[in-house]
Amino acid sequence: MKPATRKKRPLKRRIAKAPAKSGAKQNLHPTLFQYRYRFVVFALCAVFLAIVGRAAYIQVISPDRLIYEGDMRSLRTQTREVQRGLITDRNGEMLAVSVPAEAIWADPKVLNQKNSFADTRRWQALAEVVGEDADQLASRLKANPKRRFVYLKRQVTPALARYVRELRIAGIGLKPESRRYYPAGEITAQLVGITNIDDKGLEGLERQYDDWLTGSASKRRVRKSRDGKVVENLSVIEEGENPNDLKLSIDMRLQSLAYEELKKATEYHMASSGSIVILDVATSEVLAMVNTPSYNPNQRAGMQSFAMRNRAVTDTFEPGSTVKPVVVVTALAEGVTEPGEVINTSPGYRRIGGSMVRDTRNFGKLDITHVLLKSSNMGTSNLALRMDIETLLDSYAGFGIGEYSGINLPGESTGVLSRRHRWSDFERATLSFGYGLSATPLQVARMYAILGNGGRKNPVSILKVKPDQMPPAEQVIPEWAAEQVVTMLSGITGPEGTAKRAHIDGYTVAGKTGTSRKAIAGGYGDDFVTFFAGLAPAERPRLAISVVINDPKGEDYYGGTVAAPVFAKVMSGALQMLNVAPISDKERAGNLVARRGGANDRS
Q: Is the pTM of this model over 0.85?
């Protein structure tokens, strides 16, 4: 059986259905997919609505977080630091001033992240500035890599800070601060004092007036741009307080003069220490206060604590014969003696209460003036035993012994003035020539300032006092009695006095020497303290000066040979610097007559 055969289509028909020529135009129409178009439009609208809704939510409904985030990037608290106040002398000369400085600090986290230790050349340069070994410095900062702040060195000079800045070590920064500088150096060291590295007072006036000298920083909120510039001041967070300056009563000319002469004397006599105080008689302002040994407050390395003590107000000594004028003026005021009375001091010694009181030699019969000029222990003992003990103690207290002077310096001592119910006759006698009590060099100078001021006592001031702000003076002794004693003391540098080396050409000195043994356990040793305290010009006192030389070595240990020459040089130079005219012979004689007449007219 034959398979069925497929019938073939005609060739002509197949050819008719063939496609058109490739060169002919085709009429093509795009087909629109509606569901895709609608989806895209809907998506775009949804996104737009979401953005608008989010913006509305952030800006209208809940804007706080966005504001907070923005403020975190632009708001800053800017602190304006204030420098410590100035300390100047009475003429405006700088004694303490704050100068710009910078602190070098490190961020250990950044240092480790940036591997700043790899640049050994720069790191070595930084270590030399800081003053540490480069490897040790690196080890210290690598020990705690999460710390963010470590001081490397503080109070470096601007030149060193600029050098460190140019090193451009990642993680090393600079912070502005100030450094206290003392132009007078060791001359005013114990008086002015020092501050610590954070500008807080540690000693002297820097400590006592720390709150006054220190201001407070002001803080304000600002907006900063990306490059750190302030573009807007927003508000004041905290009002700052400006520091106050301190104007002292010190005259640097007199301070320098006194320190130079004191240093020479203590070195020449190989003394343990020394002090000089200069007071203005009329106001009791301290014009100079110096001590040796001293120190340089600008160089802290090797400072010793004993050199930092202001011995003029902290150290006390038995004042010896320098208190004898107080005994005489008290006796005159109480009426137990007269200026012309003659006291028999023969044979130069006397047993009182089982102990011996003696003079350096037998002076025989002495009037009251020569009791002072010869510094007779016998004479002043005689006067003291005539008075009630409380009268003498009250007089000492009235002249400032046993009380604060009002100077308001840290560490000031009141001295020792015992108040007991029972006193032996020997104790009363020794009290009259400066044993059994103690005083500071400042208190000794104050005693003579009171005498020179007509018996009127003012509080001692280390600050410059305005004339209209002076408190009323206290009259502690009659004016006539004080003037009479000053007249008696004006012969101390003459042929019959004990302080010929305190003489000053053109001026009359009224003063008193003092030499006392230093107390030790069980009595007195072989070490001495020498004094000279006095006034000039005696006819119209302008300055009172006390000089104390502690423990001089060698053959010279008397006040007339050790302390008196220092007094003469300091007083002479001070009077010239203050333009105090010399006293003429006519004026000197007139003042002497007037004082004698005042003594005769007293009631």
A: no
